[in-house]
Design a protein that fits this description.
This protein has helices spanning 9-26, 38-69, 72-100, 102-105, 109-126, 178-200, 205-209, 211-233, 282-285, 383-396; strands at residues 129-141, 144-148, 153-157, 165-166, 174-176, 243-247, 257-258, 263-269, 274-281, 293-298, 306-313, 336-339, 342-345, 349-356, 368-379. By secondary structure, it is α+β, with helices and mostly antiparallel strands. It folds into three domains: 9-107, no CATH class; 131-141 and 273-379, Elongation Factor Tu (Ef-tu), domain 3, CATH 2.40.30.170; 144-263, no CATH class. Strand 12 and strand 13 (342-345) form a beta hairpin. The longest helix is centred in the first third of the chain and has 32 residues, at 38-69. The relative contact order is 0.12.
C-alpha cells in the first residue's frame, strides 16, 4: 500500500481480480470495480493472484502443523477448521456470486466454450488412458552359478576362456591364497614330526610315557590340516552342471590379484531360459498383471529390443534389494539406504519377473542392466494422485 499509495490494497485488488476472472471465463461485459491504467491493472491483478497463492500455501502449512502438534483427534478437527474457514469459505462466496449471475452466464458464448473446455479437461483427467511403466531392470539367465572370491587371492590357472562350454565337475579356476598355503605347509611339517615321534616312542622310555599325548596331538593337527585343505578347495570351484563359462571381466589373466568377494565369472546352464527382473513400488505394481507385454533395452549405445511377457508378481514386499545395480546410488530407480552392508528400500517394493520371448544372440554373453518398459493397465491421469491422497488419509486418521 505504501509503495503504490493505494489504501485498502487487498480488498481493491481482490475485487479487480475476481472481476477479471469472470470476464475471462464468461465475458459478461460488466464494468470493473475501479478504472486503472492497463499496466497498473495488470500489476494489481498479479498482486491479488500472488496473495491468494501465498495464503493457500500458508494456510495449508498451518493446518498441517496444527494437525501434527496437537492431539490427533483435536489436530484433525483443527485441520478441517483451517481448510473450511480459510480455503473453502472464499471459494464458496465466489461460487455464490456465480450462482446469482447464472442467467446471464448461460447466454454468453464464451461461457459455453469454457464449459466445453472444462468438460473436456475433466474427461481427459478421468478417462482411463494407456499407461507405461519405465524402470531399470536386469536381464540374466534363470539358472546360473556365480563365482566369487571368499578373500583376496591370485589367479593360478584358468583352464577355460570366456564363452567356453564347461562339462560338469570340471575345475573352473584355480586361485592361490598365500596365507592358506603357508598354514597348510606348516601343518604338514608339524603332522610329520608328530607322527615320527609317535612311531619312535616304543624305543624310548620317556617318549613312551607321552605316546598318548603325541597321538592326540597328531589327530588334532590332522583335523586342522583337513580344515585348511577344505578352505583351499573353495578357491578351486568346480562346475556343478554343464554350462557356458562367462567371465565378469574378459581381460582377467593368470597372475592377477583379485579382491575379496569380487565377482569373477558366471556359469550359465545350457538350457536355462533368460529372465528380466525388476522391483516396483506399490503405485506401479498395482497396474501390472501377469501376461502383460514389455520391452527391454540395455544401457549400451546400440541395443536390440528384447520382447518380454510378465510371468510373476510377488505379493510380499522385499526387505532388501538383492540387485545392487538397480539402486539409485548406482544409476537404478530404487531409492535405498545402506545398513549392515545391505540395501534397504526406502519404500515397499515388489519383485516382478518377465520372460524373454526371443533372446538375441549378441546378448547371451553377459548379464545386462537396462531400461524396462511395461505396457501396464489403463489408468486415468488423476487416479494415481487420488490413490496417494486416499492412502495418506487412511494412514493418518488411524488411531
Amino acid at each position: 500500500m505504501d509503495a503504490l499509495d493505494l489504501p485498502n490494497l487487498h480488498a481493491r485488488s481482490f475485487a479487480l481480480a475476481r472481476w477479471k476472472l469472470r470476464e475471462w471465463l464468461f465475458d459478461l461485459g460488466d464494468e470493473p470495480p475501479e478504472h486503472w491504467s492497463r499496466s497498473r491493472a495488470i500489476l494489481i491483478i498479479a498482486f491479488a493472484w500472488a496473495t491468494w497463492l501465498y495464503r493457500l500455501v500458508l494456510f495449508l502449512g498451518i493446518a498441517i502443523l496444527v494437525y501434527h502438534f496437537f492431539v490427533k483427534l483435536v489436530g484433525i478437527f483443527l485441520f478441517f477448521v483451517e481448510i473450511l474457514w480459510f480455503v473453502a469459505k472464499p471459494l464458496a462466496s465466489e461460487l455464490a456470486v456465480w450462482r446469482t449471475l447464472w442467467p446471464r452466464i448461460v447466454l454468453r458464448s464464451r461461457s459455453r466454450r469454457a464449459a466445453v473446455w472444462s468438460a473436456l479437461l475433466c474427461i481427459i483427467l478421468l478417462l482411463p488412458l494407456p499407461s507405461r511403466i519405465s524402470v531399470s531392470a536386469v536381464l540374466k539367465p534363470q539358472e546360473s552359478w556365480p563365482i566369487y572370491v571368499p578373500a583376496g587371492a591370485r589367479i593360478e590357472a584358468m583352464p577355460f576362456k570366456h564363452g567356453d562350454w564347461v562339462p560338469a565337475g570340471q575345475t573352473l579356476m584355480q586361485l592361490y591364497v598365500p596365507e592358506l598355503a603357508s598354514r597348510a605347509k606348516t601343518l604338514k611339517l608339524r603332522l610329520d614330526q608328530q607322527r615320527y615321534l609317535a612311531e619312535t616312542s616304543a624305543f624310548n622310555d620317556d617318549l613312551r610315557k607321552r605316546w598318548m599325548v603325541s597321538e592326540q596331538t597328531a589327530l588334532a593337527t590332522q583335523a586342522e590340516l583337513q580344515g585348511v585343505q577344505a578352505e583351499q578347495h573353495q578357491y578351486a570351484p568346480a562346475a556343478p552342471f554343464g554350462g557356458q563359462f562367462l567371465l565378469a571381466d574378459p581381460d582377467l589373466t593368470v597372475g592377477q590379484w583379485i579382491g575379496k568377494k569380487d565377482n569373477l565369472a558366471l556359469l550359465v546352464h545350457q538350457s536355462s531360459p533368460w529372465r528380466v527382473e525388476t522391483w516396483l513400488d506399490e503405485d506401479d505394481v498395482a497396474r501390472v498383471r501377469v501376461g502383460q507385454s514389455a520391452k527391454f533395452l540395455t544401457d549400451g549405445p546400440t541395443s536390440p529390443i528384447v520382447d518380454l511377457k510378465v510371468i510373476s508378481v510377488d505379493k510380499d514386499a522385499a526387505r532388501v534389494l538383492p540387485r545392487r545395480e538397480l539402486a539409485s546410488l548406482l544409476g537404478g530407480h530404487v531409492m535405498t539406504r545402506e545398513r549392515s552392508g545391505q540395501l534397504i528400500p526406502e519404500r515397499a517394493v515388489y519383485r516382478v519377473t518377465l520372460e524373454v520371448l526371443q533372446m538375441p544372440d549378441e546378448l547371451k554373453q553377459l548379464t545386462w542392466r537396462g531400461q524396462l518398459i511395461i505396457h501396464a493397465n489403463w489408468q486415468s491421469p488423476i487416479a494415481r494422485y487420488a490413490r496417494q491422497m486416499l492412502m495418506v488419509l487412511v494412514r493418518e486418521i488411524g488411531f
